[in-house]
Amino acid sequence: MRILVDENIPNLTVDKLRAMGHDVLDIPGTVRQGMFDDELWPLAQTEQRMLVTTDKGFSEHRDEPHYGLLVVRLRQPNEQRIHARNSWRRSGSSRSASGPVCSSSCATRCRVP
After folding, report:
1. DSSP-derived 3-state class of residue 84
2. Biggest CA-to-CA distance, the chain
């Protein structure tokens, strides 16, 4: 799966996704570090990648066509809790997502427009 991770996703999660064989584009440490959210969403779409973020503002794109969206929502986020919330149980999927996946402290929801 092609994935773009926002700067707020811990390296532990990025490493785990790569170890599972996913093609992960990580923003920190690149010339794109610090890019604005309104630049990140088009990058994910242009590169046909699912976006993984803790920024709930991206949920405004849920009704647009996209390649997948995982919004991790926790009451008190930190690196370990973000990584633990993303259990990444499904691996090797080559299908593009047709709707956002939203994860909160209560549930994980998949929505297909």
Report:
1. helix
2. 36
| Residue-wise pLDDT tens digits, 25-62 | 998 777 888 888 889 999 999 999 999 988 888 888 88
Report which residue type is found at 70.
L
| pTM tops 0.70, yes or no | no
Tell me how many domains the chain contains. 1
Contacts of 48 (CB under 8 A, 6+ apart): 2, 67, 96
* Domain coverage including residue 15: 2-110
| Distance in angstroms (rounded) separating the CA atoms of residues 90 and 101 | 13
Residue type, 89: R
